[in-house]
Amino acid sequence: MVDSDNANGQVLPRLPIPSLEDTCARYIKVLEPLQTPKEHEQTKAVVHRFLKTEGPLLHERLQEYASTRASYIEEFWYESYLQHSDSVVLSLNPFFILE
Fold it and tell me: Where would I find the Choline/carnitine acyltransferase domain in this sequence (predicted)?
């Protein structure tokens, strides 16, 4: 898919890919209230290991993938919503999943 014009005839900018470090920091932060202190320390250790091992390679592959598309997330978004056989509202909404 290539960049397309919106209703005003302007080309929309590509969705930026956040840095791997920023993504991991936000992931750790959002999990903290959902975990016990011990679980959170384990999560931080796993995330830090990911940052030192396969994380950079996977991030590079995502950037390469994104360079060939207008949106790096669109295909995955459609796949997760359109190919799900259960109710999307109940199955993919974090509110219902965490209940």
Answer: 15-98
CA distance 29 to 72: 24
| Contact predicate 24/55, CB 8 Å | yes
Question: How many Cα atoms sit within 13 Å of 63 on the Cβ side?
Answer: 10
**Taking the domains of the chain in order of start, what are their residue ranges?**
36-78
At a CB cut-off of 8 Å and minimum separation 6, what does 27 contact?
A: 47
What does the pLDDT look like over 59-82, one tens digit per residue? 999 999 999 888 888 887 777 777
Phi, psi of 11 (to 5 degrees): -80, 130
